[in-house]
Amino acid sequence: MFGYIKPLSGELKVREFELYKAFYCGLCKTMGKNISHFSRLALSYDMVFLVLLRSVLICGGETAEIINKPFRCKLKPAKKRSHIKPNEALLYSSCTAAILMYYKCIDDIRDTKNKLKKLLYRIPALFFSRMKKKACVFYPGLDEKIRVPLAGLNRLEKENCKSIDGTASCFAELMQNIMRFGIESVEQSRIAGHIGRHMGRWLYIIDALDDFDKDIKKGEYNPFGEYYDKNKNNILKDMDIIRDSLTSSLHEVSIALCLADSKNSKNNKAISGIMPVIENIVNLGMSEQQEKILRKFKT
After folding, report:
1. Which residues contact 284 (CB under 8 A, 6 or more apart)?
2. Domain 9-297 falls in which CATH fold?
3. Burial class (CB in 10 A: 0-12, 13-18, 19+), 236
């Protein structure tokens, strides 16, 4: 479900790409320090976007300070790397990633029919269960905000729901909850929620399209498979409508980002450095991912 929210790196300036990598490494280090070294398995581009957005909305970009003392990554020690100084946005994203990974493990256990795989999935689930408890200490109430919409989504998928928007709305609610959790400002919370809702809808639909062939082959649930009678040719007939619907969601996210990048933000050098990276991810990176996946359905 995750892994689609990433920048088009070739269109980033050098300093912007270095900033993005510093956020990525900062998140990795925060996960290892505050949750568990094992929790770094939950590190994803999507969580880096969450850090970037909350750095703008909550931290005002002021805490997006790159530590000048580079370090060597244990996985890629050849080159020294910089990272963002620990802040609230990094901690929140670390906790969110741990909770989401726990529920992914539970979902894998529930979905697989292979007894051996069920047993194997229980091992990481045990570790992430402990990490989830740590995350809940930092952010009480976050677990419920994630668990409830996921339970609704699971129920609809078990019922082989034919409504694509019906299942997508559950994931949209999940992302909305994640994006705006703990934001005290009503205006900023509304902006974060709008971004989360439309990004969640886009994510669910694009992931369903990406997994269509695999899901049909394995006999697993796919909203497009249910709605279009598992016939790829039927999807091709509505491809223009599907593309317009996805593009509309991205447009809504872009509009909300314009509100986040207010006049006051433009006078903040820290935020003015982060916003081009966020805009690249939404306007170029996600659009590129969308077209890459839609090309699979070309005749």
Report:
1. 7, 8, 11
2. Farnesyl Diphosphate Synthase (1.10.600)
3. middle
* Contact (CB, 8 A) for 205 and 245: yes
Structure tokens at 264: 């006051």
The 10s digit of each residue's pLDDT in 189-236 is: 999 999 999 999 999 999 999 999 999 998 889 999 999 999 999 999
For the chain, how many residues are written? 299
Return all residues near 111 (Cβ < 8 A) that are at least 6 apart. 220
Average pLDDT, the chain: 88
Find the helix packing angle between 14-34 and 269-280, rounded to 10°. Answer: 90
Residue 228 in tokens: 């279009």
Give the tens place of pLDDT for each residue, 97-111: 999 999 998 888 887
Closest C-alpha to 287, from 275, 295, 276: 295
Model confidence, pTM: 0.91
* Helix (H/G/I), strand (E/B), else coil: 160: coil
Domain ranges of the chain: 9-297
